[in-house]
Specification:
By secondary structure, the chain is of the alpha+beta class. It is built from 13 helices and 13 strands. α2 crosses α12 and α7 crosses α11. The protein binds adenosine-5'-triphosphate.
Length: 354
């Protein structure tokens, strides 16, 4: 892991920051938001310059860096630092580069990289969330213990790929991929809400925590193929016999709002997770998402945390029903750039970059 001291020393030479990210996932929003806050931008692309940015001039990066693979970004670190680059991580950036390589990238990066080891290991993630007091779906220790519908998932952010439902040990054995680390949770029946928060250690107003404050910038629900549409074809057992197995690959996102009476709990959970992160590893900074299911008893179960910008925030490039009540037109991408701007003005960049 690159040390905070090394990053602080790089930052001492920074003046005119360039915001960079990998050309995928939420890059349009990140570049657009950075530009709104007056930053220059750089897009890192694999193989060749993507053409789709030509269709979105307000979100097209000022320049591109083309590399052969994600790992090659590491070789370009010196040049990127010379350009005064700050990288903004997103799900694809970290997952495709590999969290170990990403942890070593000697370029200032938005957020606290210590969070990676607490997020990428599902055991540690559970330890963090449950010790924060956040309710999670029950964990099933061993496949032999499956006595109810369960949800089986692999380690890392896979956009739902590979996850499956099992009702017993037989189902599990049929679907499990050998050699992959997995976690088994009870299958929670309810409605899914993916809540987008932003924690600022620099802010002094708003929903105050012991240090800094917490914002809610939006909520989405994911479209997942093919599970979301499979009901149209009838009962799952019959489908299974036909070789049609439910999958959870994310194909898009829909905007949603919570019942207003759920907001106090949503904020309480966000607060608990941030406060605990300060005790465990010096604090999670910036955007994060609690991925939840609300049952008909109006109880949340948090099945996962994503500790950086999630793709569902792409719905809210022009603001959301929540961010409109803090500052109209504030996207998560723009909020990240705003935080960097504030950090720069207050001489506190080292508190939000690592
Ligand atoms: P991500 O890209 O968010 O990291 P992932 O591949 O890690 O995705 P999860 O987000 O954990 O996978 O789960 C994928 C989908 O499976 C969820 O969006 C949700 O629809 C469903 N799901 C996950 N856990 C449960 C659960 N305990 N009960 C019911 N459904 C669940």
């Amino acid at each position: 892991m690159v040390t905070r001291k090394a990053i602080a020393s790089i930052l001492s030479d920074y003046g005119d920051i360039v915001i960079a990210t990998v050309c995928s996932h939420s890059s349009l929003q990140i570049f657009h938001g950075a530009r709104q806050e007056g930053f220059r931008t750089l897009g890192i692309a694999i193989g060749k310059q993507p053409r789709f940015y030509d269709a979105f001039p307000l979100a097209k990066p000022d320049e591109f860096l083309i590399v052969d693979s994600y790992a090659d970004i590491l070789d370009q670190a010196e040049d990127l630092v010379a350009k005064q680059v700050v990288t903004v991580p997103h799900g694809s950036f970290v997952e495709y580069m590999g969290s170990e390589v990403f942890a070593k990238l000697p370029i200032p990066t938005f957020g606290n990289r210590e969070v990676l080891k607490w997020e990428s290991d599902r055991e540690k993630q559970r330890e963090w969330l449950t010790s924060a007091g956040v309710p999670m779906p029950m964990k099933i220790e061993r496949p032999q213990d499956i006595d109810r519908p369960v949800f089986v998932k692999y380690y890392g952010a896979k956009g739902g790929r590979g996850s499956f439902i099992a009702k017993n040990h037989e189902d599990f054995k049929e679907s499990i991929q050998p050699g992959m680390k997995y976690a088994i949770q009870e299958y929670v029946v309810g409605t899914r809400y993916y809540m987008h928060y932003f924690y600022s250690p620099l802010a002094s107003s708003g929903y105050a925590l012991s240090r800094g404050s917490l914002e809610m910038l939006g909520v989405d629900r994911r479209d997942e193929a093919n599970i979301d549409e499979m009901y149209k074809l009838g009962a799952q057992e019959a489908l299974r016999k036909m070789g049609l197995l439910p999958t959870f690959v994310v194909t898009g996102n829909m905007p949603v709002v919570l019942r207003e009476s759920l907001l106090p709990k949503a904020f309480e959970m966000g607060e608990q997770v941030v406060e605990r992160s300060m005790e465990l590893f010096g604090g999670m900074i910036g955007p994060f998402c609690l991925e939840t299911i609300v049952t008909d008893k109006l109880e949340f179960k948090v099945f996962e945390i994503s500790t950086r910008i999630v793709a569902g925030t792409n719905l809210f490039i022009a603001g959301s029903p929540y961010s409109d009540l803090t500052e109209p037109g504030m996207s998560t991408g723009r909020r990240i750039a705003r935080e960097i701007r504030i950090g720069q003005k207050q001489g506190r960049l080292a508190d939000i970059l690592s």
